[in-house]
Design goal:
single chain; mainly alpha; globular
Length: about 170
């Protein structure tokens, strides 16, 4: 209420920030979104300012690549689109909040899904679907560009983690 704003969907902010603390959301809105709005010459915050602020908190500041080779940009776009298509069909219990090829942190792009309901435990089929979504970026690149590309190290570590987490525990009696 202390920050001037226009057309902000509070419910969308809450839905798009699962597991975020109230302090994290307050910081994103009260500091980062205000800074973004001021840098755009506005005296009020809009929804896009809040969305960008939340992405900054989660993934880091945008790192523009001024002279990014167009072929590599296309490769990353196909890669992220592959994740999004697989996510849409294999994990309908989640919705896609953002798909981007804006570089943040160590990632050249990302696809961010969120659960539609709070999840405390999950069936094996959901883990398998997550593995397929992780691999779908590589497959989409191969299908559209004719060869596999490197660069998706986060996907590979996520896939390895999911495979590791499906091992049955061994209990000593």
């Amino acid at each position: 209420s202390r920050i001037k704003h226009k057309d902000v969907d509070v419910e969308a902010v809450v839905e798009d920030t699962p597991n975020a603390t109230p302090a994290q959301i307050a910081s994103a809105i009260g500091k980062d979104a205000v800074r973004i709005a001021l840098s755009k010459g506005r005296d009020h915050v809009v929804q896009n300012d809040i969305d960008r602020a939340i992405d900054e908190q989660r993934y880091g500041l945008e790192q523009p690549i001024e002279e990014w080779d167009p072929v590599q940009r296309v490769q990353v776009a196909y890669h992220e689109a592959g994740h999004a298509v697989a996510q849409h069909y294999l994990m309908p219990d989640q919705r896609i909040v953002r798909v981007t090829i804006v570089r943040r942190g160590g990632a050249l792009g990302y696809m961010r899904p969120v659960d539609r309901v709070e999840v405390h435990a999950q069936p094996l089929r959901r883990i398998a679907a997550d593995i397929i979504v992780g691999m779908a970026g590589h497959v989409a690149t191969k299908l559209h560009m004719g060869e596999y590309w490197t660069g998706a190290w986060g996907d590979n570590s996520g896939i390895r983690f999911n495979i590791w987490s499906t091992k049955e525990p061994k209990f000593d009696a």
